[in-house]
């Protein structure tokens, strides 16, 4: 494979710096300067992601058992510094600003006001949040919930809350009477939970860290490691250095995947050298992954026909079904079709397929570039197909590795946060607590948005996050929040979801993970599960931002007690007094996964939850791994019409979801107010536009609603033809709520058809 990635683009301004390197230390310092962190933050960072310390609230990448001296990255440091700011957003701030006025503030400015300090109730008469007491808040929220049909209420979770909090949250929801427990995962890796489960019977990845030491090829689809899970660059760098071939499929040449300068390696820092990460970098068209993968499969099957010895026949026979249909599909799909749907040429794909056919142990990695599409589940299934052909699942150095987002989003599903009752511990809740949990399927995030629009959702309780701003179709859905009967937001910092107020609205401030959590029996630890299915304890040591803050478990218990009829088996006060008792409940509910939970909490590197597919036991309907055929060659809703483009929504290096730390997307070489639309220079010329011109994007998916975002500056960038990119959440009004993965309902944030209006 000749196209060494940095030879292609060494001269461009975007890629001169690898990811990592001094830039990241500077990036950190800038945040350190821009924000005033409280004293001792560096000491806190020193124990981040280590046994006895707290687990980072940024990404879900695993925490190794032999951590680096500083086991954190630029963005992990930013997240911690952002949490431990000295700025405070208390009752005096809200006395000065009406909610209507705050709606004009940017996301950055809202959160930059600092940590919320007091429980607040919205007063519609003054249009302000005003100080309240915890007792008053719990009593009023409990009364509000008791007056409603439980099935008209939603308990949302953003993926940060610990296993302990999450377990209590789902217990509360089911005791109260609903399964409306969507979480941020429904906008993110639900495609994995459903789509990967469909084909290999596992809703999570099959790899552990050691696999990355043993593989000789990694196929990397739509995950921006340098920004979103930077600590993953270390194993990738080691893999590249020992000769593992990394082939990346991504419409954008993301700096971290091109090369990486390790800020923890003094030689690389001093010499300014960087390791090349991707051997081959293929700028697939958005949604073109299915076609690219069919191209690879087609060539692998041709090689088998030519010489034999390529497929793992024994594995295929014993463990899979569906090969014949895939073979027929690949034969009948022409290279012309593959090239047009993927935007890649046969000459680019064939060498990758040939390298794959020779590779001993291959891992498939993916992120939002696969999951956030109309046929996202099928893109994942195509990657699984390719891996199965050579038995690349369930052997050392092989597997499929979705890279999760929020730091405990995977774990929340493990402990029962799900709208799908078949995945919930219904029987255990019955026997352990004498409950009669509801059996009806609850709402996904898409269904919550639809329920807000049609008025069937009456109350929303948010355990963290910024749901109203993170979902699709925001401009269309946001007015509906005003009509809720009850809105309760448990949060650390002020955001837009808190400002879409209804008559009965509460804003409850909580501790962050790095803060000390003292309860009746002393300091409490919590736990979370990472992307590679390892469970870690986390102990906060910082003095809380305000004496009025409560922990998330205490807030959940406070609301639950005020809502539910007394039940002698629901021991909310005991559990909040000693979180190890919540871990006992988790162990009792899932003894196989959580045996000896409390004793194993401080295991270096976490303890492994196990994975049947890794052992080649397939918990699918057929009991085999399913080789499947896709319904279409792209994961998009359909062909683009004339003058239409596929819009990809992006994260910058200076944001964590809707938290905007600043305005520099350093790894992409962009400094911007975020209101930009990226397109390639030829495309700009063809559209008769010029750089810097302000345009309006209009959604081209016609369902009778006009969706637009104006004031986006045209910015030249290296992208495939017919592809535009803009930042999330600014671009969310363009994504119709009805545009989502068919199986999992994950919104198509990476595949919305749009037109440009000058
Ligand atoms: N610093 C920081 N870290 C984060 C987050 C953050 O916002 N900031 N968010 C966290 C969360 S919740 C999540 S889910 C993860 C998200 O992490 P990622 O999974 O990396 O998600 P994105 O940055 O949205 O997009 C991933 C990549 O997909 C590419 N892409 C877009 N469309 C396609 C396509 O059709 N095919 C292919 N092959 N590639 C495509 C984009 O160019 C981009 O590089 O990160 C987590 N970590
Ligand atoms: N267009 C587009 N939309 C997207 C995406 C995309 O790629 N493109 N990505 C989607 C994805 S992957 C995700 S995960 C969602 C994210 O959706 P969410 O998880 O709902 O949003 P966040 O921006 O992570 O939430 C930030 C807020 O969480 C609160 N918070 C922070 N820490 C804590 C804590 O410890 N406890 C509590 N209680 N609150 C806390 C703060 O108040 C902060 O303002 O967005 C989705 N939306
Ligand atoms: Mo996410």
TrEMBL record:
Native species: Rubellimicrobium aerolatum
Region forming the signal peptide: none
Domain Molybdopterin dinucleotide-binding: residue ranges: 646-753
Endoplasmic reticulum found in the keyword field: no
InterPro entries: Asp_de-COase-like_dom_sf (IPR009010), MopB_CT_YdeP (IPR037951), MoPterin_dinucl-bd_dom (IPR006657), Mopterin_OxRdtase (IPR006656), Mopterin_OxRdtse_a_bac (IPR010046), Prok_molybdopt-oxidoreductase (IPR050123), YdeP_MopB (IPR041953)
Keywords linked to the UniProt accession: 4Fe-4S, Iron, Iron-sulfur, Metal-binding, Molybdenum, Oxidoreductase
Protein name (Swiss-Prot/TrEMBL): FdhF/YdeP family oxidoreductase
CDD domains: MopB_CT_ydeP, MopB_ydeP
Top-rank taxon: Bacteria
Family: Belongs to the prokaryotic molybdopterin-containing oxidoreductase family.
SUPFAM superfamilies: ADC-like, Formate dehydrogenase/DMSO reductase, domains 1-3
Cofactor(s) needed: Mo-bis(molybdopterin guanine dinucleotide); [4Fe-4S] cluster
């Amino acid at each position: 494979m000749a196209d060494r990635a940095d030879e292609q683009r060494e001269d461009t301004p975007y890629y001169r710096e690898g990811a990592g390197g001094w830039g990241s230390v500077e990036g950190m310092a800038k945040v350190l300067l821009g924000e005033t962190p409280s004293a001792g933050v560096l000491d806190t960072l020193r124990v981040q992601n280590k046994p006895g310390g707290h687990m980072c609230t940024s990404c879900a990448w695993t925490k190794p058992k032999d951590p680096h001296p500083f086991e954190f990255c630029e963005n992990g440091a930013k997240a911690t510094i952002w949490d431990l700011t000295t700025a405070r957003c208390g009752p005096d701030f809200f006395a000065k600003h009406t909610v209507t006025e705050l709606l004009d503030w940017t996301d950055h400015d809202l959160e930059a006001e600092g940590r919320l300090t007091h429980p607040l109730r919205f007063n519609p008469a003054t249009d302000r949040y005003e100080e309240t007491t915890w007792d008053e808040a719990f009593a009023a929220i409990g009364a509000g919930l008791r007056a409603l049909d439980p099935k008209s209420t939603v308990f949302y979770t953003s993926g940060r809350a610990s296993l302990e909090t999450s377990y209590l949250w789902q217990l509360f929801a089911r005791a109260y009477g609903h399964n409306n427990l969507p979480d941020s995962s429904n906008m993110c890796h639900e495609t994995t939970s459903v789509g990967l489960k469909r084909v290999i019977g596992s809703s999570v990845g099959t790899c552990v860290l050691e696999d990355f030491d043993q593989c000789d090829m990694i196929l990397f689809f739509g995950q921006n490691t340098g920004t979103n899970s930077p600590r993953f660059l270390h194993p990738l760098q080691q893999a590249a250095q020992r000769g593992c071939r990394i082939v990346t499929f991504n419409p954008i040449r993301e700096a971290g995947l091109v090369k990486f300068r390790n800020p923890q390696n003094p030689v690389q820092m001093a010499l300014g050298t960087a390791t090349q990460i991707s051997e081959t970098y293929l700028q697939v068209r958005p949604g073109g992954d299915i076609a690219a993968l069919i191209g690879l499969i087609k060539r692998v099957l041709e090689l088998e026909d030519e010489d034999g010895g390529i497929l793992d026949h024994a594995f295929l026979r014993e463990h899979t079904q569906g090969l014949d249909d895939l073979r027929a599909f690949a034969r009948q799909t022409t290279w012309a079709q593959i090239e047009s749907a993927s935007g890649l040429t046969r000459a680019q794909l064939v060498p990758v397929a040939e390298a794959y056919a020779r590779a001993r142990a291959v891992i498939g990695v993916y992120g939002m570039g696969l999951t956030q599409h109309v046929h996202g589940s099928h893109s994942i299934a195509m990657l699984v197909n390719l891996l199965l052909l050579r038995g690349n699942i369930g052997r050392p150095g092989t597997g499929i590795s979705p890279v999760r987002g929020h730091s405990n989003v995977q774990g929340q599903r493990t402990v029962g946060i799900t709208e799908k009752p078949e995945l919930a511990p219904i029987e255990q809740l019955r026997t352990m607590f004498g409950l009669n949990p509801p059996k009806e399927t609850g709402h996904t995030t898409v269904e919550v948005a639809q329920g807000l629009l049609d008025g069937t959702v009456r109350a929303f309780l948010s355990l963290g996050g910024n749901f109203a701003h993170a979902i699709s179709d925001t401009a269309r859905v946001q007015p509906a929040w005003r009509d809720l009967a009850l809105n309760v937001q448990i949060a650390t910092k002020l955001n837009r979801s808190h400002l879409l107020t209804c008559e009965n609205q509460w804003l409850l401030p909580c501790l962050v993970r790095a803060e000390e959590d003292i309860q009746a029996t002393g300091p409490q630890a919590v736990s979370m599960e990472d992307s590679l299915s390892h469970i870690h304890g986390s102990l906060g040591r910082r003095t809380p931002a305000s004496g009025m803050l409560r922990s998330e478990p205490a807030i959940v218990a406070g609301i639950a007690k005020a809502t539910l009829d007394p039940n002698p088996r629901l021991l909310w006060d005991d559990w909040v007094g000693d979180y190890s008792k919540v871990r006992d409940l988790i162990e009792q509910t899932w003894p196989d996964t959580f045996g000896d939970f409390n004793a194993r909490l401080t295991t270096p590197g976490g303890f492994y939850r196990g994975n049947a597919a890794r052992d080649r036991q397939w918990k699918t309907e057929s009991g085999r791994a399913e080789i499947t055929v896709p319904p279409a060659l792209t994961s998009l809703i359909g062909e683009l019409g004339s003058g239409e483009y596929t819009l990809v929504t992006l994260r910058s290096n200076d944001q964590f979801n809707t938290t905007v730390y600043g305005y520099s997307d350093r790894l992409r070489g962009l400094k911007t107010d975020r209101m930009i639309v990226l397109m390639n220079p030829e495309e700009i010329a063809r559209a008769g536009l010029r750089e810097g011109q302000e345009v309006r994007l209009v959604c081209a998916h016609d369902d009778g609603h006009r969706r637009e975002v104006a004031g986006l500056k045209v910015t030249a960038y290296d992208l495939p033809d017919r592809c535009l990119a803009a930042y999330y959440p600014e671009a969310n009004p363009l994504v119709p709520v009805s545009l989502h993965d068919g199986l999992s309902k994950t919104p198509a944030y990476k595949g919305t058809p749009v037109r440009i209006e000058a």
